[in-house]
Amino acid sequence: MKKLIIVLLALMIPFVLFVGTITILSQIPSFYSYEFDKLDTIEKANLNISSQEVSDIMVDYIRGERTEFQIYADVNGKEQYVFNVKEQRHMKDVKKLIGNGNFISVAGSLMLCLLYLWLYKKDKSALWKMYKISAGIFTACVVASLLICIIDFNAGFNVFHEVLFTNDLWILNPSKDILLMLMPLQFFIDAFIFSMVIVTGGILILGVVTWKITRQRKMFSN
């Protein structure tokens, strides 16, 4: 039983941290507006609207505070609806995916806490063993991700979408579809890097906490 808990915790920690980070980041308007301004995508899409307004509308829809994913704005000097049907349908899938991410984040975090506490009570020394395995798994994932980014991030990005989505609505035209103009590949590269930095920080903090717990046990045992 203890070995099973160690393996389960080791696998779940990086997974839940990454899913939670991506899910939270996707619901922060300031991240979108920062990227829109940094990449100058609002102007490139010829939209006469502020980056903050676009960000708020997108995040409100993702959070379920808006029923329709649509913006009415000046495009190339003409007032019109910004997103086409395909873009709206894809964002409906994205909204559902993020909703699942919210559930995984909450349920996964609760399960992690319970399993960690169970292992803490059963055998504190096993916590450090579990952490080393988890850190090793995370490191391997980071190395694999870096290799993908270096070799062909776009190919990895496509595989990621093929796994997560059951349709081809995510295949958009960068010269016609404004959603893709607003969020080009660099947008997702930045989101991935930012998420990995946060997850790495979380892994390191957990390591410090776990080390102190196991070290304290050794001190008292002496």
Give a brief outline of the structure:
The chain has 222 residues and is mainly alpha-helical.
Description:
- This protein has one domain.
- α1 packs antiparallel against α8.
- Mean pLDDT is about 90; it is low at about 220.
- The chain is elongated and about 65 Å long.
- A hairpin with a 2-residue loop joins β2 and β3.
- Helix content is about 80%, strand content about 5%.
- The protein is mainly α.
Topology:
Layout: H1 2-25, H2 29-39, H3 41-44, E1 47-48, H4 51-63, E2 72-75, E3 78-81, H5 85-122, H6 124-164, H7 178-182, H8 185-221
Antiparallel strand pairs: 1-2, 2-3
Give the overall form.
elongated
- How many DSSP-defined strands? 3
Q: How many helical elements?
A: 8
Strands of the widest sheet, in order across it, are: 1-2-3
The string of secondary-structure elements, in order, is HHHEHEEHHHH
**Largest sheet features:** 3 strands, antiparallel
Q: Which radius of gyration do the C-alpha atoms yield? A: 21 Å
Secondary structure: helix percent: over 70%
Range of strand content? under 5%
Mean pLDDT: 91
The span between the termini is: 28 Å
Report the structural category: mainly alpha
Low-confidence segments: 218-222
Number of folding domains?
1
Main features:
single chain, 222 residues, mainly alpha, 3-stranded antiparallel beta sheet, 8 helices, elongated, disordered C terminus
